[in-house]
Structure formats: structure tokens, C-alpha cells
Amino acid sequence: MCLIPLLSCTDVGLYSPGKEPKQSDRLSLTGRVCTEDPLRAKFPMRVIVLADQAAGPLFSDYDAAGLRAGALNDFVRTTLNQSNVEMAVIGYGGRPEKLAPTDGAFTRNPGELFNAVNRLTLAKPCQGERCRDYREALRNARALIEDDLAATPKGERLRTHYALVMINAGPQQPIAVGSDCCQGTTLECIEDNDQPSPACETQLDAGIIASMRKYAISQGAAGLGFQAMHLAAEADDAINLQVQDAMEAMAFAGGGAYQRFNNASGFSINTIELLRSRAEMRPKLLMASNINALADPDGPVVDSDGDGLSDAEELRLGTDPTNPDTDGDAISDLVEALMGLDPLHFDRPAACSAIVPADRDTDLDGLTDCEEALLGTDPTLVDTDGDGIPDRLELIQGTDYLNPDTQADTDGDGVSNGEELLQHTDPRSTDTRAHLSFGYRYEVNDLGRMESLVADRPRFVTGVHITAISEATTAGVGELFFDPAGPTLQWRDADDGVPGPPVLIDAAGVFELDSARSAGLPDDQKRKISVDINPTLLPDEARSETIRVVAEQRHCMDYTIRNIKLMSTVELADGTPAGINNILLYFNTAVGGRLDAPGPFRMAQIPVLYRPPNTRVPSDAVLGVKDDEFVRPNLTR
Predict the structure, then answer these.
(1) Which residues form a coiled coil (predicted)?
(2) What CATH homologous superfamily does 45-277 map to?
(3) C-beta neighbour count of 184 within 10 angstroms
């Protein structure tokens, strides 16, 4: 089936891809949707700095002046400029110590972090044979990650990436003995390997990182990376090479990079590359659903309030077909009916007593947190069981929202549950005619990974929105100049020393701003940006503002979804006019290519008014949906 990944589904033989049907009750949606770039979308990131404090060459010969502290302070300062990043600092010598934060696992408090960096310039003495116990420091880092994961909702976990930055100057002390790497309790191996073993140490170190990475992913995190910064401080280069072997193995196990610094003056941490080290986001599912058209064996039936009960069924139950929650208790009529509660009597079950406000919907999936508590679904995940189908749609259509069942065929009609939900047909009945007449038809073209330049929105030069950036523009920090006398705008490319020519912006609309080097060049070689101007919001005084231009990497696909049936709904209790159909578009992504795990959702809502026989607003048979119309829940801890 075409459910996961939905990258080649077509309706060949079922629907003509030519002209749209001349039926006012049918609609098509088309557009391009892309995964989010984790860096641009500011997905949560937790950074742990593990730094060597072992007394010895690091402090006496290699970096007596403490130059590395300056580089670390620059790293902290640059990293905290990213609002989505939190940090922790662990120093290790004879024993490891968490230097920041004082409380909790991670912090954004610059005072705590700068103080921790300053403390790293103090050498730690040996504790018996333990002089540089970075293995124990790594275990402490794992404990921080475990605590953070336990405190993070699952819906936020799947976007959270952990990055370990290890700054190390020498070998693990005490070093592992060969017997530490013996499998099981083989006596012969233990007896023959009772001496210190750099090879065994390397194996153990890499194993710790691999285990930590596997654990983070198993708990639903987006990923974990490891960056190895080797300060080659030992006078004996043979020891430096031994350390290099261990750190390269750790970096490989952590999917990161190893860097060697032969002198302290050259030490630095590439913040951009660290923040870029994120799990790949891939499309997993795109599906549409008219929530006012309830799938039925004989075709869609009207559900005016979109609660999952048809208008006819609500009249039979005595509930209000114009109000999804007849008794106003933040539990929909459908959920109350399924859970054996009274939809006509205000209920406040114990499972919902601590939820405030009562109608809170953390993940924006259409189920309140109270309903999710009753159903056993996760209030921070749109798709609890990770099969790609939103919990609410599975609940309404009667499939298993707690266990993946998209491959099953509950009604035995030869069409899997997943395909039925995609087509908006009933997975509980043999409805062959409904498939042919009313099934949604998908055409999806996978465009693969695409790179484009994007810019920050101006904060101080108000009334200006950057809508397009030419391919020739330089990624980096450009600058926007506003002069109210014209008024005019100028653009300086990141690779230019001066701005381009001023452009008069005396009316609303879109304008092109060329860089200084664009003069005389063909249009496709010009470094320019397009801006949309709102004159009423322009500043009253001259202003300039630096603008960050970055290359955004996203996986995109073009789609058309046809044969969406519109229903003749009645006016709702909240004043929503008769005829309104709310069509939802769900776009689910897989983190790190993990198609069987819950992934982030973005959703778009397209309201359409339909009144028989021929009134449809918008009147177009095909509606375009822009990528930026898809929104995602703003989850907080």
C-alpha cells in the first residue's frame, strides 16, 4: 500500500487526471509541502560540554594561559543566541562534576555557564588511580539525558536532539584492562588479558556512546550526536595517537566528527556545524479529511459539528448535531458515547481533574487532553501508535489508535485499513461502490531534498517582509537599509562591502532590491531579494538591520488530492453558518527515517462553504494550499 511512505500513490484507472469534475460538491486540493529544516524551525537542542580538567600537560605546557576558556566562552555565547538551545557543562579529572546548571539537567542561564567555563581552568587532582575518568563523565552525561527525557513530553522529544561535545587532552585513567572486554565469563580470556589495553579502552568508549545514542532514540528523541575535540597535549605523540584512536571511535559511534588541535591557539568549536548535526526529516504521510463528511458504507453522511457522530445519529441519541460537546464538559459527544458516559450530563472524570483549562488540546489533533486521558492516547502526539494516522481519525473510523493496524483489513474487502482512511472510506464495512464513487484520489510526486535560501524576518525595519531570495545571493549576514526620506530600501549582500542602489517603496507591493555587484549582470546571476511592503508599518526614522541568510534543506513533494466530497451542513450553535465544510490536511514526517515511530505533524485547515445545488465558496474546483499554511503544535514542558 502507499501509506508509508506516501510518495508514489496515484489514481490511475480510477479517476481522470484531466479536467476537474463539474460537480459543485467535489473539490481538489493541490500544492507543495516540505519537511521542516530542524535548524530553521528551531527544534529543541540540548548540548553537553564535557571538558578535561586533569592536572598535567594540559595546564602546564599545552595551555598554561587558559586560551581554551576564551574559545569555550565564545561557543557558549554563540550557542545561546539560538533560542532553542539549552546547555550543561561537566568537568572531569579525578572525578567528574556537573558545573552547570546548579539545578536541573540543562540551562540557558549565561551566568551559570560562563562561571562553569571559568572553573574549567582549574586543574583537578587524581583520586587514587583515577586521574582522568572521562568514562564516568560520560555516564553522568547519560544521566542528564535520562532525566531530561523523563521530563520532556513525547511530542517534544521527537524533535529534541542531544549533542555531546567532548574536549579531551589525554587517555582515560585508569585505562581498561583487556579482561574488561571479554565476552561473558570466559576464564581463559580473563586470565590472558589482565594488562592495561588501549584497544579494549577504545572498544568500551565507543560502546558507551553507541549505547547512549541507542537509548535516546529508543525513548523517542530525534537523535544524539558526539563531537570529539582532541587537545593533543601529551609530549609523547604515541600517547596522542592512542587518545586519537579512542576519540575517533567515539565520534564514529556518535555520528559526529573528530578534530585534533596541536596547539591551544588553534582551538575553536564550529557552532554552525554542531547545530546543523540533526536527524534527517523525511515525508511519512500526507492525507486529507473532510471532518464534516463521515465515512459510511453507502458513502459520506453529514456530520455538521464534526464530532464523529452523524447528524442522524445525534438526533437518535438526543445530542445536539450543531454542538460537538452537547453538555459542555470538554468531552465530545462521540467520546462520551464510546466511553459509556452520558453526553447529556456534565462529567468531570478523575483522569481530567488536573487538566486546566478543561478544553486544552496540546497537540492540536482535535482531541482535548481530557479525552486523550480517557482514551489512553498521548496528549502531545497527534499519532500515538506511530502508524501515520492521526488518533482522532482512527477513533472516528473505529481502527486501533493505540496499536499500528494500517496493514490490517478489518472489513475484509481487500483494501487495508490505512488505505481506507486515506481514501476517506469506511474500514469497518465492505464498501466497494463507495471506494469507486467517493474515495479520495492522491497524486504525489516526491521531489527529494531541496535546498533554498531563507532569511530572518526584519525586526527593526518594520513593514518589510522578505518573500524571495535569488540563488546567487550569498549565505551569511546581509544588511537592510531604510531611509524614510524616499522612502527607500537598500540591500547589502553578505559578500559586498556596500549596499546596492536605493529602491523607492512609496506604495504597498513587492519590490526587488539588488546588491551592489548585481549591476550589469544577467538576471539569474544577480544577488537580490524581493520584499513585500506595508507602508503603514514602515519606521519613522532611518534604520539599518543585519539579516541572516541561511541555506535551508527540506524534503519536498508536490501533491493533488481529488474527489473530496462536500456536505450540506446546518448552522452550528456557535454561529458557524450552514454549509461550512472544514477540510484538514495532515502532513506527518519521519525523524531519522524511522517510519514506524511517531513523528512531527503539521496541519492545515481549509474551510469551504457549500450549499446545494451550485454554491461553493471559494468557487474554484481546485484549491491551492501553501506550505506555510501548515502549522505545528507549540509544545511546552
Answers:
(1) none
(2) von Willebrand factor, type A domain (3.40.50.410)
(3) 7
